[in-house]
Specification:
The protein is mainly alpha-helical. It has helices spanning about 1-20, 20-25, 35-45, 45-55, 60-80, 85-100, 105-125, 130-150, 155-180, 190-200. The protein is extended, with a radius of gyration of 25 Å.
Length: about 200
Amino acid sequence: MRTNYNNYLETIIGIFTSIDLNKTKGFINKSNKTALLDYINKEFLNLKEYRALIKDITLEKEDIIEILYQLLKLVYTSTDKDNNNTSVTERLITDANNKGFTWPNSNSCFKKVEEEFSELKNAIKQNDENNIKEEIGDLLFTLHCFANINKFNYEQILNSANTKFEKRFKKLKEIAKTKNIDLLKCSSEIKEEIWKEAKKSL
């Protein structure tokens, strides 16, 4: 049985490494998932070639296609990581640090965070849209610096916050459904109450 699964793994890797990533990258978003699966099916899954493989395992042809799809998602997540905004910020901060351009300690960096927050408040008071966007950027950048100086992983922090919100919002929707509350029509006060209930229950 081990040999069968080794053969299966080798076959999957063989297919995966022969896929033209330039052709498939445009398919990877949700709306084009069907197009990508069709492409993989037509280009790589010849039934004759996989007859022995399918005979020895419980996975169907569709399962193999889905595995390939998930692998492609992982590849694109990995290759795109170097180009996302958080990684660019990380590189800029590291470059500045290497040239001695950084705060002497965490407290001095946090004072800069407070300064940027104050500037954002002023921009909001003045209702200056361009300045508001600029100050939001400055604040986020400085928070990233504060995370770095404390050896915190900014991206992990953001991912944790996203996960926390996702769980709470899922619970909030469950509570609203149980209580027959329409979130689109209910008051802000009711939404706040349900949100607090969702937080408390997790």
